[in-house]
Amino acid sequence: MRVYLDYNATTPVDPAVLAAMLPYLAQDFGNASSIHSAGQRARAAVDRARDSVGKLIGAAPSEIVFTSGGTEADNLAVFGVVAAAPQSRKHIITTAFEHHAVLNACQALLTHGIDVTFVPVGRDGIVDPEDVRRALRPETVLISVMHANNELGTIQPIEEIGRIAAEADAFFHCDAVQSVGKLSFDVNQLGVDLLSISAHKIYGPKGAGALYVRSGTPLEPRLFGGHHERDRRPGTENVPGIVGLGKAAELAGAHLNDDAPRIVALRNRLEETILEEVPSVRVNGARNRRVPNTTNLSFERAGGEALVIALDLQGVACSSGAACSSGAVEPSHALLAIGLSPDDARSSLRFSLGRATGPQEIDHAIRVIPPVVERLRSLSPRPPDSVAAQ
């Protein structure tokens, strides 16, 4: 039996999404910028998708900019706002455990003379809004804080930070790649000016995403070419991918109320059974403020990468860190940011459930995880008593 518990890394394309996309790969293949009938059919499909994405997050269709995914959306938000800002306002506030799409964009800006403040994250995996407030300067132009952390699943106090940003007259960007489709929210209630979405996290295709840009938010494009996406993102539209994102957004809204309570019950059963049956396991991050599908566990004296490989051989797919960091020898920056030691961070696994996860998948995972952990621990030398007692 194969059990996939890595939905935070990517999701399968929903059959209804695939069906919606197929016509635009074959018979309705027109360029959405062309004025003939084939082009206009493609344009109408893009417009319908824009409307669906807007409805999912409470935005106007005109505020949705289609991108190639969450990374481009994050980069467009960070670089675009800074480029559009006056020289007197070149300071950014972000957190120490953002996705690398934001962190590395901010690191790149540091090399170009832009000041960046990385506020800390608590052991519970939640940012204190007061730390954001204390980091404010008169020159702060942008605050970027993710909605749900991709590794821990912890939900950040976005509404509070949004109010702080508004009081400071700073723009507020939120990477919502891991919360869209899992949580119900409205961009106006959150108080964000920019918000990133990725299709392949919500049962859509890879290579498609969107950036919500509140009307009136100045944003310089990072690509140059035609006048697509209201001069925000040039290039011939990926019509099949955009259609897939639109359909995925529509389905996400329709499934949300049914998916969340079912998935959280399965997640809790998996987590609680592991804690009961496997000694020396700890939940990383707050347990009462997470997206419904995610748990991150540290298994003492069992290396995360070895666990991933051993579990995969037993039919269970999970992750030892962010998927885009796979193969890296460094421990997860997000886990280090919440205060875990490098050894504990390397011994952590993320299990993330999805729409197709059922009781039988959890039953199988529960059967194989304890013996796999026990076997790997038996192969790991126990630390000397003098060290273990410290």
Structure overview:
With 390 residues, this protein is α/β, with parallel strands linked by helices. The protein has two domains: 132 residues, Aspartate Aminotransferase, domain 1 (Alpha-Beta Complex); 238 residues, Aspartate Aminotransferase, domain 2 (3-Layer(aba) Sandwich). The chain is built from 14 helices and twelve strands. It has a seven-stranded mixed beta sheet with strand order 2-8-7-6-5-3-4, sandwiched between helices. A three-stranded antiparallel beta sheet has the order 9-10-12. The protein has a two-stranded parallel ribbon with strand order 1-11. The longest helix is centred in the middle third of the chain and has 39 residues. The protein is globular.
Structure characteristics:
3-stranded antiparallel beta sheet, single chain, 7-stranded mixed beta sheet, Aspartate Aminotransferase, domain 1, 12 strands, alpha/beta, Aspartate Aminotransferase, domain 2, 390 residues, 2 domains
Tally the beta strands: 12
CATH architecture of the largest domain: 3-Layer(aba) Sandwich
| CATH top-level class of the largest domain | Alpha Beta
Largest sheet: 7 strands, mixed
Number of domains: 2
Mean pLDDT: 93
N to C succession of SSEs: EHHEHEHEHEHEHEEHHEEHEHHEHH
Total count of helical runs of at least 4 residues:
14
The low-pLDDT segments are: 384-390
CATH fold title of the largest domain: Aspartate Aminotransferase, domain 2
Report how far apart the termini are: 42 Å
Task: Determine Rg (CA atoms, Å).
Answer: 22 Å
How are the strands of the biggest sheet laid out side by side?
2-8-7-6-5-3-4
- CATH-level-4 superfamily name of the largest domain: Type I PLP-dependent aspartate aminotransferase-like (Major domain)
Sheet-strand content, in percent, reads 5-15%
- General form: globular
Portion in helices: 40-55%
- Look at the helices and sheets and give the structural class: alpha/beta
